[in-house]
Design a protein that fits this description.
The complex is a heterodimer of chains A (396) and B (263). With 396 residues, chain A is an alpha/beta fold. Chain A has helices at residues 20-37, 40-54, 64-70, 89-102, 116-128, 138-143, 145-153, 168-181, 199-222, 237-243, 272-275, 313-320, 331-345, 351-365, 385-391, and strands spanning 9-10, 13-14, 60-62, 74-79, 107-112, 131-137, 157-161, 186-188, 228-232, 253-261, 278-281, 284-288, 310-311, 324-330, 372-377. Chain A has two domains: 17-50 and 89-199, Rossmann fold, CATH 3.40.50.1100; 55-86 and 208-391, Rossmann fold (3-Layer(aba) Sandwich), CATH 3.40.50. Chain A contains 15 helices and 15 strands. In chain A, strand 9 (228-232), helix 10 and strand 10 form a beta-alpha-beta unit. Chain B is built from twelve helices and nine strands. Classes of the chains: A alpha/beta (396), B alpha/beta (263).
């Protein structure tokens, strides 16, 4: 059940819907990436940094108390939260920063929502001596002010974007405008499995380390593949990195969890697949939240990292061919997931990952004791403590 | 289908010894009723064709001025559908061809077949879709096949020679030569090498070549007009119309006249 990849297409999704000024840069990127993939020295260098700088491989942890709490399938956590910088984002930022160096580009632009991709990119740029500017929505700057300062400590310039609702979508718009204007010496490190081809493929490939490690680790521990794998979806980079290596293993059920915000029926959510409307945003044909005139709508989620009105093109295709089941979890449920994992396992997950935790616990309850479920714990929750405290009215 | 309306308007203008002048306006900036007023004014002032911009929630190819005009128009509730209906209501009074500039998603939402049919009913003979490069253009080109609506492609300074050739061969209406690396907006200077770029483009193209992005003064209109078959002026027109400064608009348009042999 391989996904089709003609000209950057995943079924009918994907493509390159960008201004002409960017086409040449995208074609150069495509060629540079193909060359890098075939160069063992590139892989060796990336693997060196992933191991000695990021701290991979990270553990696949048996969550015994969470398993007991759910009372069904055995639950494992893939600990992306233990990576340097606290989330899976660094896997992609490092890979793309190394790619930029290969292309002779010394300047980096990136967007960020929660700040995790911004911090990861700022980190990779500091490590490799690249100049970096990060665009971040004004609302996200407010929600994640510590991450802004973190990026600044790392030597990155953070630009607050006050257009639109001042969230991730607006930051991507501004990063794209910056890239169009500086395309000759700047590489755009897109943070999710989104955007024009070849970005969805590059981001997925760099994130596949998650699924590849998980596969090997679960076989070592259990002697077989899991029955279910659960990951949260904003743009969908942790999920595609986790799912892709399992796509051909048809006995492994895959579950993607979108952010239902205040609830799908309220209209205040970020669940583009649930919204079921196709369209073009930021260079790709995807499921996109939009009104009847084709204007893109703002997404709503307590979690800044899931606050995006579309879902990466490969996920859209995996939904269409029914290989992955996509559901959604509300802000309130995600908060419950966060509290639960904190109390029973001593791990405060990122609000993004907490969506997957909540969903997985409900799913595990319906599964048999001898079955195995893996949650992609995409990031740690330190960045969200303030938001969570406010949402819970100070009552942990 | 000939799709000749826009092209012929430019060619006839050049034959008279003038450079083509195509202003960009943001539809509904100041309210939907300004659309007719502005189009009739620009037509009377001597423009060759008029580019009517549709506001969009995520205008990634636009700079501050057009983004802000777009936000004002969005606040007025302007949509692609409203603009097309409004244009149809005074079509009989419009003598220059209109070209709609819109991002792709509103077009997809409107429906590809529907837009092909409705454009002609509204006097619209060209579509410019800045996020639809050559590789993806078949989708709309097929829908416009049996209409008089030309799909106008952009060429940028970064487009390599083979790509320029491919775009020029597929070109309809005119080629929109983007004169800067970047988004729309006012600039003081243009890159060196622009002249050679525009010459190569003209040599490769069987349709007229118009220069656009960053052209904001009568001097720009003359100097860049001299290198192409005409110019597109966006941000400067949008700003002038927003301020009600019609005299500046006339000065810009006048700069395109009688200058085929003057520079």
């Amino acid at each position: 059940m391989q996904t089709t990849e003609t000209k950057g297409r995943y079924g009918k999704f994907g493509g390159q819907f960008v201004p002409e000024t960017l086409m040449t840069a995208l074609q150069e990127l495509e060629v540079a990436y193909e060359e890098a993939q075939q160069d063992p020295a590139f892989t060796e260098e990336l693997n060196y940094y992933l191991k000695d700088f990021v701290g991979r491989e990270n553990p696949l942890f048996l969550a015994e108390r969470l398993t007991k709490h759910a009372g069904g399938a055995k639950i494992y956590l893939k600990r992306e939260d233990l990576n340097h910088t606290g989330a899976h984002k660094i896997n992609n930022s490092l890979g793309q920063a190394l790619l930029a160096i290969r292309m002779g580009k010394k300047k980096i632009v990136a967007e960020t929502g929660a700040g995790q991709h911004g911090v990861a990119t700022a980190t990779a740029c500091a490590l490799l001596g690249l100049e970096c500017v990060v665009f971040m929505g004004k609302e996200d700057v407010r929600r994640q002010e510590l991450n802004v300062f973190r990026m600044e400590l790392l030597g990155t310039k953070v630009v607050s974007v006050d257009k639109g609702a001042g969230t991730l979508k607006d930051a991507v718009n501004e990063a794209l405008r910056y890239w169009v204007s500086n395309v000759e010496d700047t590489h755009y490190i897109l943070g999710s499995a989104l955007g024009p081809h070849p970005f969805p493929q590059i981001v997925r490939d760099f994130q596949c380390v998650i699924g590849n490690e998980t596969k090997q680790q679960i076989v070592e521990k259990e002697g077989r593949l899991p029955d279910a794998v659960v990951a949260c979806i904003g743009g969908g980079s942790n999920a595609i990195g986790m799912f892709h290596p399992f796509v051909d293993d048809e006995d492994v059920k895959l579950y993607g969890v979108e952010a239902a915000g205040s609830g799908i029926s309220t209209g205040k959510h970020a669940a583009a697949i649930a919204g079921n409307q196709e369209g073009v945003l930021h260079g790709a044909y995807m499921y996109v939240l939009q009104d009847e005139d084709g204007f893109i709508q703002e997404a709503h989620s307590i979690s800044a990292g899931l606050d995006y009105p579309a879902v990466g093109p490969e996920h859209c295709h995996l939904h269409d061919i029914k290989r992955v089941q996509y559901d959604s979890v509300t802000d309130q449920q995600a908060l419950e997931g966060l509290q639960l994992l904190s109390r029973v396992e001593g791990i405060i997950p990122a609000l993004e990952s907490a969506h997957a935790v909540y969903y997985a616990v409900q799913l595990a309850k319906e599964m048999k004791e001898e079955e195995i479920l893996v949650i992609c714990l995409s990031g740690r929750g330190d960045k969200d403590v303030q938001t969570v405290r406010d949402a819970l009215g100070g009552q942990a | 289908m000939t799709k000749l309306q826009v092209r012929q308007a430019i060619e006839q203008c050049n034959e008279r010894g003038d450079k083509a002048f195509v202003p960009y306006i943001m539809a509904g900036d100041g309210g939907l009723q300004t659309l007719k007023e502005n189009i009739l004014f620009l037509q009377e002032a001597g423009t060759t064709a008029i580019e009517v911009g549709i506001p969009f929630s995520d205008p990634v190819a636009d700079g501050e001025v057009i983004q802000q005009a777009g936000e004002r128009a969005l606040a007025e509730g302007i949509t692609l559908r409203k603009v097309i209906n409004e244009l149809a209501s005074f079509k009989e009074e419009v003598t220059v061809p209109l070209v709609i500039m819109t991002y792709l998603n509103p077009v997809l939402s409107y429906g590809l077949q529907a837009i092909a049919a409705d454009c002609e009913k509204s006097g619209v003979y060209g579509l410019i879709v800045p996020d639809l490069p050559l590789e993806e253009s078949d989708l709309l080109k097929d829908a416009l096949k049996n209409s008089e609506v030309a799909l106008i492609q952009l060429v940028s300074l970064t487009s390599p020679a083979e790509r320029i050739q491919a775009i020029a061969q597929a070109a309809e209406g005119f080629i929109y030569a983007v004169t800067v690396n970047g988004i729309t907006g006012v600039r003081d200077s243009f890159t060196e090498g622009l002249e050679g770029h525009l010459q190569r483009l003209k040599a490769a193209s069987s349709v007229p070549v118009l220069a656009g992005f960053g052209i904001s003064t009568p001097e720009h209109v003359q100097s860049l007009g001299a290198l192409a078959d005409g110019v597109i002026v966006g941000s400067a027109i949008v700003t002038a119309l927003h301020k009600g400064d019609f005299a500046s608009v006339r000065t810009l348009i006048d700069a395109s006249k009688n200058q085929v042999t003057s520079i």
